[in-house]
Design goal:
The radius of gyration is 21 Å and the shape is globular. Helices cover 86% and strands 0% of the residues. It is mainly α. Helix 3 crosses helix 11, helix 8 packs antiparallel against helix 9 and helix 12 runs antiparallel to helix 13. The model has no long low-confidence stretch (mean pLDDT 81). It has 16 helices and no strands.
């Protein structure tokens, strides 16, 4: 069995691209993991909690400001085979128009938005600008993914991550207070530089800016996915907003540290899923269902093994990463819960990719919205009773519910 698996690893194009995506994602997240003990030991729990809170809102605003248009990049590759560059150019200009509208709204209502988000008015402006460029980076790297341009994906991941880390450390050391601003300013600068470069890498290939057919196509795919994407953020990150309000940013810092330790599994899934989607779409296009079923078995086996290994070594990772700031170690107990939650993310992604291919994005949105609603209700109850551990259990229960939903949908369409 093992020899057979190794032969497949050497020959298969899916596996090859998966390895490259894993390298890119792991390098990017590896930088994040390397930086964790640096940041944890340079900042207080409250400051670390503030960076986590800002990151949550960044994820939300990136979806809203871009209308989640980057979600249409993968499917557009198959529906616009001859004029794909024109489609990409038109779609990215649509994203820019959305950004201008949201920037005007953000500047006008920055005071009110600051109260809602627990941020400052100046951070609202920074948040909107960074969110747009983060969406552009997602847009272009999605294009790299669907075209099997994994070396370009790796290059962007590595260089942007290294630049972000180096600039973050430099700026944190320069701040005597509010050290979290060093991380925020670094992220803004790096996203702007890479976002501008990648934006022009798309528009220089085509003169098309506005095209009614392309804009309609992008919006018909992306808008139904906005509830899904937002609900996904609610499932994975909005608990940090609720913890900050109920327990304070210090407790949010502890929870975020534990969550970030467990997120290594979600990095594995994201990398493998980037390789799986173009393979899956290609095989579905050829109606080669037998190959898909065969690969499913190996895919699940490998991911299950990785999950088990991480469950085993996670306590040591926590101890190493919090070698000076031992106050963060109290979050160790929730790491296994979050790891299991990430395993269910992997499981539900298998049938949801089928729904996306069939353009039934409303089913994806409906499921994630329902799970997000469950998550908010459970968080509001369990955080008060169990502290931040309640948020971890709420996340796990929500992802189990989401997996069961997509499993039943998948069975109905196979």
């Amino acid at each position: 069995m093992l020899n057979k698996l190794l032969k497949i690893l050497k020959k298969d194009n899916l596996v090859k691209s998966g390895i490259w995506y894993t390298i890119g994602s792991f390098f990017a997240q590896g930088i994040t993991f390397i930086s964790m003990p640096i940041f944890v030991n340079l900042m207080s729990r409250e400051e670390y909690g503030m960076t986590s809170l800002y990151g949550t809102w960044l994820s939300i605003f990136s979806i809203l400001i871009s209308l989640d248009i980057f979600s249409s990049v993968g499917k557009g590759r198959y529906d616009f085979k001859e004029d794909y560059d024109d489609y990409l150019s038109s779609a990215i200009w649509l994203s820019f128009l959305c950004f201008i509208i949201f920037l005007i709204i953000g500047v006008t209502f920055r005071g009110r938005l600051a109260q809602i988000t627990q941020l400052t008015p100046i951070l609202i402006i920074i948040l909107i600008i960074q969110s747009f460029f983060a969406a552009i980076i997602n847009f272009v790297t999605s294009k790299f993914t669907i075209n099997y341009e994994y070396k370009k994906y790796v290059l962007v991941s590595i260089t942007s991550s290294m630049a972000n880390l180096l600039l973050s450390v430099i700026l944190i050391l320069k701040f005597n207070k509010d050290k979290y601003m060093g991380i925020i300013y670094a992220g803004l600068c790096v996203n702007m530089i890479f976002g501008i470069i990648l934006f022009f890498s798309i528009v220089k290939k085509s003169n098309v800016k506005f095209n009614k057919k392309y804009w309609k196509y992008a919006l018909l795919i992306s808008i139904p996915l906005i509830p899904h994407s937002l609900s996904g953020v609610i499932l994975s990150q909005f608990d940090r907003v609720m913890i900050s309000r109920a327990l304070g940013k210090g407790q949010n810092g502890v929870y975020s540290f534990a969550y970030n330790i467990a997120s290594i599994l979600s990095v594995v899934w994201a990398a493998l899923n980037k390789a799986w989607i173009p393979y899956f779409f290609g095989k579905m296009d050829k109606k080669d269902y037998a190959s898909i079923r065969k690969k499913y078995k190996y895919y699940i086996l490998v991911f299950s093994l990785i999950t088990f290994i991480l469950m085993f070594i996670s306590p040591e990772i926590v101890r190493i990463f919090s070698y000076k700031s031992k106050g963060f170690r109290e979050g160790m107990s929730i790491v296994p819960i979050i790891l299991i939650s990430n395993f269910f993310i992997f499981l539900y992604s298998l049938p949801s990719n089928l729904e996306f291919y069939m353009r039934k994005t409303y089913l994806i949105s409906l499921g994630t919205f329902g799970a997000g609603f469950i998550n908010i209700i459970l968080n509001s109850i369990l955080i008060r009773r169990m502290g931040y551990a309640g948020a971890a259990w709420a996340t796990l229960i929500s992802y189990i519910a989401l997996f069961l939903y997509h499993y039943e949908i998948g069975r109905a369409h196979v």
